[in-house]
Amino acid sequence: MFDKVAKWTFLAFMPLYMISQYMFVRGVNMYLLLFHLPRLILFVLAMLLMLKKNNSTFITLMSFFFAYNVLSFVLYAFNGASVSFYIGTLQSYLFPMIFAWFGYRYSNDEKYNKIYLFSCLGCFLVGLYLYFTMPSYYLQFLYDFETTQYTGRDNVTENAILAYSRFSSFFGSSYMVSYLSIPALTISLSYTLNNNKEVNKFWCYFIAIVSFIAAQLCQQRIAMVYSVAVLLIYAFFSLKAKHSSKLLIVYFVVIVVFVSVLGAIGTLERFDVITDNMMGRLYSMDINSAMEQRTVQYRLSERATWWSYIVGLGMGSCGGMAREAGLIGVTDGEWVKLFYEMGLVGTSLFIMIILTSLARSLKHFRLYNIEFVVIVYFLAAGIGSNSLTMNIPCAMFWYCLGRIWNQNYYLTKKRIFDNGN
User: Fold this and answer.
1) Do 58 and 402 touch, CB atoms closer than 8 A?
2) For the whole model, what pTM was predicted?
3) Among 49, 208, 318, 328, which has the minimal tally of Cβ within 10 Å of its Cβ?
4) What is the DSSP annotation of 97-155?
């Protein structure tokens, strides 16, 4: 009974989250019923899962890392930060982490990936309509989001939003689309190359196209570049597996749909603005200049002490809320923030989790190509953004880590491939 409740709550969470977010844009707050309540249930269920006995090295390491983050609360007595930073990070960082346990326990089949794909598809399609048409209620939502998230910014006007906003669907932040689009693109492309029965091939191609467009329009440099890399990776897999006809179909459909979309929106006034923004973003693909904008934040050594290098300053003490409060914090560099918050002890635990998982996924790459590609994306994104502190979208990172160690999933996938997938 416990496993059934846990699995179905876990499977239903992503669509409920999407619905609650869209309803909020329309002026209806359903977070309590559709988001906060399921999240509370999942958190309780995850705590119970942690108490179950198992011999998995991954689960042991994850449990230590999770506990270390929770117990880092005591460091707030010495770090000069507000306890509200810690509380705020519980939902944006600690909650997504529990998906590692759900990936480890409830990923034997492809149901979660299927639900994830169609949740993302709905998010992107609705978001594209909002982005290109900019109805008044959506424009008001973006205005409210900008003025709430960036207090003190004096150029937040409706005209500025129309001119410079990136594709953020109904989230307000283009980072959210970035962290949803790459996993959706990866999963859908991988499914085009196997006999997966959960998702029809047509939907795989369609979701891949829409996800690629979303990754480009969000104008996050890492997403724009990585989405092209994902296309090339699976194009190579297609040729290697002698699926060249599938490869041609994918590119033919991508070209036809992309040209059709450009032709359809070319008559809209916003098309020229969005095109100019896209081209400007492509011209700014300079790693050096991008990092120069971020290294200004990497001055946390001014807050560090000899003991904090070992044990850290505590979860949440060096992130976005710290910067908003006037302390030195990092909003564009997950790994710098991780080190100063968790110190050498916590960072070492995290590195062990990542290295062991990547090693296993590389060893069985044909089985874990989705998980490997998604994990590497979040790791790469963490160089210039707080990729693991973006609430629900980063849950896929932890889910993939857990799935790599799900022995039942491994045996099922291996049997399918050995039988000549």
Assistant:
1) yes
2) 0.90
3) 328
4) HTHHHHHHHS-SSSHHHHHHHHHHHHHHHHHHHHHHH--HHHHHHHHHHHHHHSTT-TT
Which two structure tokens, joined as six digits, stand for 157?
């006007």
Amino acid (1-letter code) at residue 404: I
Long-range CB contacts (< 8 A, 24+ apart) of 154-158? none
Q: What is the mean pLDDT of residues 110-126?
A: 95
Per mean pLDDT, which range of 203-212, 238-247, 335-344, 402-411 is the poorest? 238-247
Helix (H, G, I), strand (E, B) or coil at 246: helix
Cβ neighbour number for residue 407 with a 10 Å cutoff: 10
pLDDT tens track for 202-252? 888 889 989 999 998 888 889 989 999 998 888 888 776 665 556 556 666
Using alpha carbons, list the distances in angstroms from residue 51 to 45, 152, 219, 399: 10, 46, 42, 19
Q: Which two tokens stand for residue 124?
A: 């992107």
Of the candidates 126, 112, 148, 187, the one whose C-alpha atom is nearest the C-alpha of residue 406 is 112
d(CA 259, CA 342): 48
Number of H helices, E strands in the chain: 22, 0
Q: How far is CA 407 from CA 362, 363, 375, in A?
A: 16, 14, 19
Distant-in-sequence, close-in-space partners of 51: CB < 8 Å, separation ≥ 6 = none
Sequence-distant (6+) residues with CB within 8 A of 225 are: 285
Q: Which amino acid is at 182?
A: I
3-state secondary structure of 232: helix
Burial 272-308 (b: 16+ CB within 10 A, else e): eebeebbeebeeeeeeeeeeeebeebeebeebbeeeb
